[in-house]
Amino acid sequence: MVYFVGAGPGAPDLITVRGQELIRQADVVIYAGSLVNPKLLAEIKKGCRIYDSSHMTLEQVAEVIVQAEKDGKATVRLHTGDPCLYGAIREQMDVLDQEGIAYEVCPGVSSFCAAAAALDMEYTLPAVSQSVVITRMAGRTSVPDRESIASFAAHKATMVIFLSAGMVRDLSKELIKGGYGPGTPAAIVYRASWPEEKTVICTVETLAQEAEKHKITKTALILVGDAVSQKSYERSRLYHPEFTTGYREGSEGDGGEKA
């Protein structure tokens, strides 16, 4: 059996209980050593074989998994954050399907959640933004034209941009080209939840300047949109005394006063 496990954003206590238990039971662990906190491997059982996939190709990863399966071993494929985001798990699953090997996915805490926590931020503020766009700049991995930064920026929703910290100058231009004003609030969150975590509040226009100032070139998320400022939002109607729910009766009114 193979388990794709979300390791969480970095802090070892942010892995799920299920994920930690799967690691404890594993006979083989293949982990992304360049991104996953090695402290998560502190409780592996005696004799567990560990492989760092940052030095491996897909074919080499598959070879380890197939051999483990032949040996009757349980394998944990440990991915940073949640495996469903930029985890390249589909291509691994396709190999396992071809080999007739069963697998399951254990979700994890994504770094975009840890980034919001680092900023004490709510992505979906009433009357500011009710949508979050998770995307990336085109690099060695292409992005469909319909999903360009500029096309998403036109919506002026909250954006969380992965894998683009080394391209912030071009990113800034694309955001402005798409419709964000130069003064739109933005943030850079470096290694969210790690001991060396760093948060930088800036604007779309000053992204490159601040990234250079703080020497941030990788392992960071870029957050963009008015929600970053956490200001000028409307109070949630759900908890307003005038709002009726299935659990309590509210008084009349729309419950939409400013916070």
Structure write-up:
The chain is an alpha/beta fold. It folds into two domains: 2-109, Tetrapyrrole methylase, N-terminal domain (Cobalt-precorrin-4 Transmethylase, domain 1, 3-Layer(aba) Sandwich), CATH 3.40.1010; 112-229, Methyltransferase, Cobalt-precorrin-4 Transmethylase, Domain 2 (2-Layer Sandwich), CATH 3.30.950.10. The protein contains seven helices and ten strands. The protein has helices at residues 17-25, 58-70, 89-99, 111-118, 149-153, 168-178, 207-213; strands at 2-6, 28-31, 49-52, 75-79, 103-106, 132-136, 158-162, 185-190, 198-203, 220-224. The strands form two sheets. A five-stranded parallel sheet has the order 3-2-4-1-5, sandwiched between helices. The chain has a five-stranded mixed sheet with strand order 6-7-10-8-9, sandwiched between helices. Helix 5 (149-153) links the parallel strand 6 (132-136) and strand 7. Helix 2 (58-70) crosses helix 3 and helix 6 (168-178) packs antiparallel against helix 7 (207-213). It is globular. The model is unreliable at 254-259 (pLDDT under 50).
